[in-house]
Design a protein that fits this description.
Elements lengths: L15 E2 L8 H18 L6 H7 L5 E2 L5 E2 L2 H10 L3 E4 L8 E4 L2 E5 L6 E3 L6 E3 L2 H11 L8 E2 L11 H15 L4 E4 L6 H12 L4 H4 L3 E4 L3 E2 L3 E2 L1 H13 L3 E5 L2 E2 L7 H22 L5 E5 L2 E4 L4 E3 L3 H16 L5 E3 L10 H17 L3 E3 L4 E2 L4 E2 L1 H19 L5 H4 L1 H8 L9 H6 L15 H6 L5 H15 L7 H10 L20
Parallel strand pairs: 6-20, 7-22, 9-10, 10-11, 14-16, 15-17, 19-20
Antiparallel strand pairs: 1-6, 2-3, 4-5, 7-8, 12-13, 17-18, 21-22
Helix pairs in contact: 1-9, 3-9, 4-5, 5-6, 6-18, 8-9, 10-11, 11-12, 12-17
Length: 507
């Protein structure tokens, strides 16, 4: 295998290259690709807006007698070839900057759930703005999560979409210094949010010079129809030159064919339509290609995120997109379990491992998400961060060199002490060869019993309390915060952002 350079002297690092798992042959990939282009050229996408047609018709797209927008095959192929094959992700703090290209793997939260799973009562409650801020604070402390992608909504503000969008932007900005993403409900909210970010930066236009937040959405309503508001958001971000993540989440057996190959064809075509929109508006514009085929349990018609079929199809999607050099995002770490139990563990593990091995660039691995994306567990975020460290170590693989083959080390030890525990090579490789999970319990059984026989869920709850009672980021300058609050309807109170607020310190 290709030896991966280790820039950190640690066992894992952001941007480890995936791509070892390839469930499709190259012939399969070309057939899926060709059929998807047939779909775009002959069936097309329903409900194109007049704004889109202003860009699409002069470039050779046509509206058929059925009212659907058809994309010529040659146009789509040219756009795939010309779209940029690398995307910069900027952190609020530049130390978190990185550039995505090739099969490099980074991870983020995801979900937009509407509930929080309470550890003590094991019941769901509506997610609030303070929960989003708390999740952002956690992501800033979890090393294996590289991007904060909006994990849930602020349900108490969901009736007023402007207030909701402004406040989720502020809560995530206040909570993390890493790159983050937002789902914005209407394009008219984008300019005020950019103004909020400029106020934080202290200069008009500063955000677009170095955008630390991606505005994402789902411009397609499967099967093969545009979603009006999300399409308008996608067009607006392209007009601004703001890179975006266009996510298409069809569901095999419900809004896409039950045949997994057919679901891939449709979802690839739908996501290509989003890429075409972006590049029709601004040629060469990079876009994170969010091809997210989901699965239906055909016994009930319910969505299932933790199935083997989901692990397979999202990995195949990553391989397909990597074949054409597209920058990808992919969902993983979902579970249909209602809590953080053994079912959650195995479902999250299989989907996260396969899509990482397949080389999806931005893995939206849903840390802590339970209940088929309906709820978020703070304890689950900590557990899944732990799990992800091991997944990334698997993706990194084994480096085989003259030095690592260790012939001389074996010879010295066999004729010497007879063990490797205090050999210089062991000390040298202690941190760069091995990952040491924080939540997984590797102690002897008697030590575990003496400590109260705690489960990983129990230990994670203690860790969450520690993280959220003591850590409050302060990267927003107080003067800038005053200006933000003077100009925008910020609902997150200053007292909510300091120790002693009662959410976790009295728990």
């Amino acid at each position: 295998m290709t030896i991966q350079q280790n820039p950190t002297n640690k066992a894992i690092w952001p941007g480890i290259a995936g791509g070892a798992y390839k469930p499709l042959s190259n012939h399969d990939i070309k057939r899926i690709h060709s059929t998807a282009l047939d779909v775009l050229e002959n069936i097309g996408i329903a409900h194109p807006t007049p704004e889109l047609l202003e860009y699409a018709l002069p470039k050779g797209c046509i509206v058929g007698d059925d009212g659907r927008l058809k994309f010529p095959r040659a146009l789509v192929e040219d756009i795939i070839a010309s779209t940029k094959k690398q995307i910069p992700y900027y952190g609020v703090d530049p130390k978190y900057d990185f550039e995505v290209s090739g099969e490099s793997v980074y991870t983020g939260t995801a979900g937009e759930a509407v509930n929080i799973l309470d550890y003590k009562t094991q019941t769901y409650r509506p997610s609030k703005l303070t929960d989003l801020y708390d999740a952002a604070r956690m992501v800033n402390q979890l090393d294996n999560i590289h991007i904060l992608m909006q994990p849930f909504i602020a349900t108490e503000h969901s009736e007023d979409l402007y207030n909701h969008d402004i406040n989720i932007a502020y809560a995530q900005l206040a909570g993390t210094a890493k790159p983050f993403t937002l789902s914005i409900s209407q394009p008219k909210h984008i300019d005020p949010i950019i103004s909020l970010f400029d106020t934080f930066l202290g200069k008009e236009g500063a955000f677009l010079e170095r955008p630390f937040c991606y505005i994402l959405g789902c411009p397609i309503r499967s099967p093969l129809a545009f979603s009006k508001n999300n399409l308008a958001v996608l067009i607006k971000t392209a007009q601004l030159g703001l890179p975006t993540d266009s996510c298409v989440a069809s569901q095999a057996g419900a809004t896409a064919p039950a045949a997994l190959a057919g679901a891939m064809v449709q979802t690839f075509a739908e996501t290509l339509a989003g890429l075409c929109v972006v590049n029709l508006v601004r040629p060469g514009m990079p876009m994170c290609f969010g091809m997210w085929p989901f699965i239906t349990d055909l016994r009930t018609g319910n969505f299932t995120g933790g199935s083997g079929e989901e692990a397979l199809i999202i990995s195949a999607a990553a391989q397909l997109c990597n074949y054409y050099g597209l920058i990808t995002s992919g969902p993983a770490g979902m579970t249909d379990s209602k809590t953080m139990d053994a079912q959650a563990g195995y479902e999250k593990g299989i989907t996260t491992s396969t899509v990482a091995l397949a080389g999806s660039n931005i893995i939206s691995f849903y840390p802590g998400m339970v209940g088929s994306l309906m709820a978020q567990s703070f304890e689950g975020m900590v557990i899944d961060n732990d799990m992800l460290g091991n997944v990334l170590r698997v993706v990194r693989g084994i480096e085989v060199t003259d030095e690592t083959l260790s012939y001389d080390v074996i010879k010295e030890t066999v004729y010497g002490q007879g063990h490797y525990l205090d050999h210089p090579q062991t000390y040298k490789l202690m941190r760069s060869e091995f990952v040491y999970p924080e939540m997984a319990d590797r102690r002897l059984p008697e030590e575990w019993q003496k400590d109260g026989s705690k489960t990983i869920y129990d230990r994670a709850h203690e860790k969450v309390k520690e993280m959220l009672s003591n850590y409050y980021p302060d990267h927003i300058d107080p003067a800038a915060d005053i200006r933000i609050r003077d100009n925008f309807p910020i609902k997150l109170k200053p007292a909510d952002m300091k120790p002693g607020n009662g959410r976790w310190d009295k728990e």
